[in-house]
Specification:
Blueprint lengths: L6 E6 L2 E6 L4 H7 L23 E4 L5 E3 L10 E3 L3 H17 L14 H8 L16 E2 L5 E4 L8 H10 L4 E4 L6 E4 L16 H5 L5 E3 L14 H10 L2
Parallel strand pairs: 1-5
Antiparallel strand pairs: 1-2, 3-4, 3-5, 6-7, 7-10, 8-9
Length: about 240
């Protein structure tokens, strides 16, 4: 949450709410038990607006707004659930599934995957778009972990946790569009990274099976999020 400041009052789905100046709509919604779907946002990490699932409507505008990076203002009338938003969110998920190779039946995170769970929650049971079928390499050079770029949704969580919490900044993004990849250092194999501390934070904030512990079979990779309160504490201490 942002530092204490002027309180803004507004509504979310016709419910009166208030939030400190500088807070995001998503933060205030969570504080009031209002669920807004997201795949890239995680409490304790900075907000990036990368997945666009958290888009909301604001009365008086035809635009959609990413709630994680839209700050609250006095008198806003925010809508988080509508037929338009549902169709938009379903389309985003379909595009994510079509862009890379998310084959749940053979994934180590099957049953423990946030992308899979979100698709079930939003009723995505088929894909209308042609699959691109990329053939990205799997990097298993690290002694403990591996990365399969075919399952990456480019949420940026691993990049942000490595930079903002671990302080190593081992990971970053390369290229644009469908060619975007999360890379290690200067695009070197993970196992040869001089900056990686092998803390595993990137693995356990990953919402899919893109980052996993070695030796896990299908459906065995459950992410351990016990350190998430620590992320929040560290972020608050830096303000």
């Amino acid at each position: 949450m942002s530092p204490a400041g002027e309180v803004k009052t507004f509504t979310i789905d016709n419910k009166p709410v208030s939030g400190v100046e500088g807070a995001s709509i998503l933060e205030v919604a969570r504080e009031n038990g209002i669920e807004i779907p997201t795949l890239c946002n995680m409490e304790g990490l900075s907000s990036s607006g990368q997945c666009r699932l958290c888009m909301v409507e604001i009365k008086g505008s035809n635009r959609l707004f990413p709630s994680c990076v839209t700050v609250v203002e006095e008198g806003l009338e925010v809508i988080t659930q509508s037929e338009r938003l549902l169709k938009y969110r379903q389309m985003i998920l379909e595009l994510i599934f079509s862009e890379r190779n998310h084959i749940c039946a053979v994934c180590v995170s099957n049953g423990h995957c946030e992308l899979q769970s979100m698709a079930q929650k939003l009723g995505v049971n088929h894909i209308r778009f042609p699959y691109l079928h990329p053939r990205f390499l799997l990097d298993g050079s690290h002694p403990q972990y591996e990365v399969d770029h075919n399952r990456c949704i480019l949420c940026g969580r691993c990049v942000r946790v490595c930079d903002e919490i671990e302080g190593a900044h081992t990971r970053d993004l390369r290229n644009r569009g469908i060619h975007t990849l999360v890379i290690t250092d200067y695009d070197s194999p993970w196992g040869k990274s001089p900056s990686c501390t092998s803390c595993g934070k990137c693995v356990h904030v990953c919402p899919t099976g893109a980052l996993a512990e070695k030796g896990k079979s299908v459906a065995e990779m459950a992410k351990r999020r016990q350190f998430l309160p620590y992320l929040v504490m560290r972020r608050e201490s830096k303000k």
